[in-house]
């Protein structure tokens, strides 16, 4: 449930921008263009946020540590590794 709350909140936020705001654009010669801009902005911002959020859930690249650093951390944390 911890990962669902931000997903729901930001989906509702960007959904409101992309679905709700185009209805309140004042009438004028550029109304259609402004509506499309709002929808595309909401879609791309939501997609960018989603990619960044999901990349943090399962990072592909971890830290590169030397063998000495790994052995030192294991000893300090109480899990000494015997070579």
Automatic annotation (TrEMBL):
Membrane-topology annotation of the record: Multi-pass membrane protein
Molecular function GO labels: proton-transporting ATPase activity, rotational mechanism
Keywords in alphabetical order: Hydrogen ion transport, Ion transport, Membrane, Transmembrane, Transmembrane helix, Transport
Parts of the chain that traverse the membrane: 7-26, 32-55
Subcellular location: Endomembrane system; Membrane
GO cellular component: endomembrane system; plasma membrane proton-transporting V-type ATPase complex; proton-transporting V-type ATPase, V0 domain
Function summary: Subunit of the V0 complex of vacuolar(H+)-ATPase (V-ATPase), a multisubunit enzyme composed of a peripheral complex (V1) that hydrolyzes ATP and a membrane integral complex (V0) that translocates protons. V-ATPase is responsible for acidifying and maintaining the pH of intracellular compartments and in some cell types, is targeted to the plasma membrane, where it is responsible for acidifying the extracellular environment.
Subunit structure, interactors included: V-ATPase is a heteromultimeric enzyme made up of two complexes: the ATP-hydrolytic V1 complex and the proton translocation V0 complex.
The family this protein is said to belong to: Belongs to the V-ATPase e1/e2 subunit family.
Name of the protein described by the UniProt record: V-type proton ATPase subunit
Lineage of source species: Eukaryota, Metazoa, Ecdysozoa, Arthropoda, Hexapoda
């Amino acid at each position: 449930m911890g990962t669902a709350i931000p997903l729901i909140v930001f989906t509702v936020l960007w959904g409101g921008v992309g679905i709700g705001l185009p209805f309140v654009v004042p009438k004028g010669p550029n109304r259609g263009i402004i509506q499309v801009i709002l929808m595309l902005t909401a879609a791309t911002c939501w997609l960018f946020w989603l990619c960044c959020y999901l990349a943090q859930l399962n990072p592909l690249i971890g830290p590169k540590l030397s063998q000495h650093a790994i052995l030192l951390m294991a000893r300090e944390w109480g899990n000494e590794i015997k070579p």
